[in-house]
UniProtKB/TrEMBL annotation:
Sequence ranges assigned to domain Methyltransferase type in this UniProt record: 53-140
Keyword Transferase set for record: yes
Name of the featured protein: Class I SAM-dependent methyltransferase
GO biological process, one term: methylation
Annotated source species: Streptomyces subrutilus
Assigned keywords, A-Z: Methyltransferase, Transferase
InterPro entries in the record: 23S_rRNA_MeTrnsfrase_RlmA (IPR052939), Methyltransf_11 (IPR013216), SAM-dependent_MTases_sf (IPR029063)
Annotated transmembrane regions: none
One Gene Ontology MF term: S-adenosylmethionine-dependent methyltransferase activity
Keyword Transferase: yes
Length: 253
């Protein structure tokens, strides 16, 4: 039985979007994964260090999936629901979760960590990362690249200026890392296919990834959502493309 627009939207608008687990989208949306496998590479790096800081950990799911963790493992997060979720998930693994506003300075001393990591950080404070890294330490991160899922963004917001589309470019990250005194030792980027199979998946995604369409609410965009629902029903999945890049940088001795 085909579910109606109203049912799909109401369901997606009421479900919890806490944490950084997208399993609710299973069967409703697909996203091609980067070829490098961030979590696997992260787990490899954790085995060689005694201290790690995970910046903007979300609900802690990625870090928890790399257990066992180093003796000193700390994660920061700013959003209260995620702080609670990460605490429940990471404390049993021996990791501390610190509430942090995601603004400089990081609440740690100079040279406190051998490894700093972050998956999909909203903002990267490169000078702070360099400060809290020990000499010879590394920063390892998977980040969102330029114009990611902009087919969906521009469906709701219209064409975006070139400077907005170019935001989060990996070349800018390399330059910022260098300016902070870090040497980039690895950089990879890919553009990946994403499909939304029903309008509920779109609503859930925009509620969870709040910077895509800032201030998104079903009420504000209901007419546009209905048009997109009809498009998906008639033409098949809505196709967009995510941009991802992997960056690893070393603090010189």
């Amino acid at each position: 039985m085909t579910r109606t627009f109203d049912h799909l939207v109401a369901e997606a608008d009421s479900v919890s979007v806490d944490g950084w687990d997208f399993s609710w989208l299973d069967g409703r949306a697909t996203e091609q994964r980067p070829s490098w496998g961030y979590q696997r590479l992260l787990a490899e790096r954790l085995t060689g260090v005694r201290s790690v800081l995970d910046v903007q950990t979300g609900g802690g799911e990625v870090l928890a999936g790399c257990a066992p963790l180093p003796a000193l493992t700390v994660a920061t997060e700013s959003w209260p629901p995620n702080i609670d979720r990460a605490t429940r998930l990471l404390h049993p693994l021996g990791a501390a979760v610190v509430a942090d506003a995601d603004e400089p300075p990081l609440p740690f001393g100079d040279g406190a960590f051998e490894l700093v990591v972050s998956r999909h950080p909203v903002t990267v404070w490169w000078e702070e990362i360099a400060r809290v890294l020990a000499p010879g330490g590394r920063y390892f991160s998977q980040q969102v690249g330029p114009a990611s899922v902009f087919e969906l963004v521009e469906y709701f917001l219209g064409p975006q200026p070139e400077e907005v589309r170019r935001g989060r470019h990996p070349d800018d990250a390399v330059a910022a890392a260098g300016a902070a005194g870090l040497e980039v030792v690895d950089l990879r980027s890919e553009r990946l296919r994403t499909e939304f199979h029903d309008i509920g998946a779109v609503v859930y995604f925009l509620r969870k990834v709040i910077w895509m369409v800032p201030g998104f609410t079903v009420g504000q965009y209901r007419n546009r959502l209905r048009e997109l629902h009809e498009q998906i029903e008639n033409d098949g999945p809505f196709v967009a493309h995510t941009a991802r890049f992997l960056i690893e940088a070393r603090k010189t001795d």
